[in-house]
Amino acid sequence: MLRYIAFADDLSAWFGKMFAWGILIMAFGVGYEVVARYLFRAPTPWAFDLSYMLYGTIFMMAGAYTLSRDGHVRGDFIYRLWKPRTQARLELVLYFIFFFPGITALVFSGWKYAARSWGYLEVSSNSPAGVPIFQFKAVIVAAGILLFLQGVAQVFRCILCIRTGEWPKQAEDVEELEKVLLETKSLDVLKSEDEGFLPSRELDAGREPRDRDAQ
Length: 215
Prior knowledge:
mainly alpha, 8 helices, 69% helix, globular, transport, transmembrane helix
């Protein structure tokens, strides 16, 4: 199970990071459109199609990557209070009740949708440029398959957690700067207290240093 989890995580990460480069393409396309429209009065007929197709592609292809990093939004105000085994049991049930049926429906429905689009080489109706969009419909199927494979890895994580009482370690990844700064600040405060220095929050509040030996 651990080998499959590592395989699925690596696969999801590869696709997620590869398609993340689409953000740069989308930014350049939208930037070019702004300059052409407002400086040269020559709007492009393709920028709108490029932006929404790339945004949709990035959003879909990042789904499995986000799932592998446990990055999807969850209402965890109760969940986080439970023991890991209880969390794993709940997630295991929910994966089979909601996740896999939904993803399976996405793959089969997306396949029909994409096949129809490829059948007549669909182009965009939103602009006179006739931008081809049939190839982007295949992203629905690809994203669904990646999510299904990653979902199996998440089920294995739940099983391992039920057995051991601890969640398997997630793959290390890039952290948001805000989170890193908050964690760094917390560690600096704890270190200062351990070394007998006065934390900055107490100096700012004008409080006297705490006597660490007085109890």
